[in-house]
Automatic annotation (TrEMBL):
Coiled-coil features, chain-numbered ranges: none
Record protein name field: Homing endonuclease LAGLIDADG domain-containing protein
GO MF term set: endonuclease activity
Record-annotated Homing endonuclease LAGLIDADG domain positions: 63-213
InterPro entries: Homing_endonucl (IPR027434), LAGLIDADG_dom (IPR004860)
Length: 276
């Protein structure tokens, strides 16, 4: 059997920081997995160290919740889960800002670029920028969540990410002088859409309507917010912990004024709301 020569610091990096299994480390060094486990035991490198190293902060948890409702995707392999987030080229700065929030749990510091210009289909696709986290056990609980369970965890911060990901800012057109929001919930079932409506009222005091008709050629499902509710949502987003991120990278999705009786009203239109 090949001798396993490795320093404690290198083994710690493989096992704790890079989250490699004892089997994977054994493959790299050409030794048996039991040999790796014995060396881990000798050096005092434990599974608990792996768990403690890769833990989500409260804001990172909100980022994960908002992303899996929006443009994020969780992938599980063996016993570990990773988060992948992708945005179009126009939203590169937004994607990069997200990466900065969670880069301590990623194996890269820069966004990956995906060239989609040569894809042959009927859609005019933009190039993509994406990042992925490491595969971690702390994400397993989120992988197991269904949409309703995920909505139960929604707060002002995760709402901001979801709205920035999947929300659409309808700008004034013609005689309609006010902006309003629509939120795509196409992948939701009707029951999940109905539950989302109740969550928006209970947590944020807004009442979205559902735009959906199964007879449509593409029966997409969308939540539509009134002018007042849209303004309120924008206020909540700007006051959340991700508010500065929203202003700096996705300001075009925020609503700054509303017109009532031909009077342009600034932020004070919405009664200040305590954001936790």
């Amino acid at each position: 059997m090949r001798e396993f020569k490795i320093e404690k610091e290198q083994l710690y990096k493989h096992y704790v920081i890079d989250q490699l299994s004892s089997y994977r480390i054994a493959e790299i060094y050409g030794v048996a997995a039991t040999t790796v486990r014995n060396k881990l035991l000798l050096f005092g490198v434990t599974p608990q160290m792996r768990e403690q190293h890769n833990q989500l902060t409260y804001l990172q948890k909100d980022l994960v919740i908002g992303s899996i409702l929006g443009d994020g995707c969780l992938q599980k392999k063996n016993s570990l889960t990773l988060l992948s987030v992708s945005h179009c080229e126009d939203q590169k700065n937004y994607a990069y800002a997200k990466l900065q929030l969670i880069k301590n749990l990623c194996n890269h510091d820069e966004l990956y670029f995906v060239d989609r210009s040569k894809e042959q289909d009927s859609k005019n696709r933009q190039n993509q920028y994406l990042f992925t986290t490491k595969s971690m056990s702390c994400l397993n609980e989120y992988y197991e969540l269904n949409i309703i369970d995920t909505l139960k965890l929604l707060n002002h911060n995760s709402l901001t990410i979801w709205m920035l990901d999947d929300g659409y800012h309808n700008y004034p057109k013609g005689k309609n002088k006010n902006s309003f929001y629509e939120l795509s919930v196409t992948r939701f079932s009707i029951d999940e859409v109905n539950y989302a409506q109740s969550v928006f009222w209970e947590k944020f005091k807004v009442r979205p309507k559902v735009k959906h008709d199964p007879k449509w050629k593409k029966p997409d499902k969308t939540l539509v917010f009134s002018v007042y509710d849209s303004y309120r949502l924008s206020y909540l987003m700007k006051e959340s912990h991700f508010g500065q991120l929203a202003k700096e990278t996705m300001d075009y999705k925020l609503i700054h004024t509303v017109i009532l009786n031909r009077v342009v009203t600034p932020e004070k239109f919405t009664v200040p709301i305590r954001v936790g």
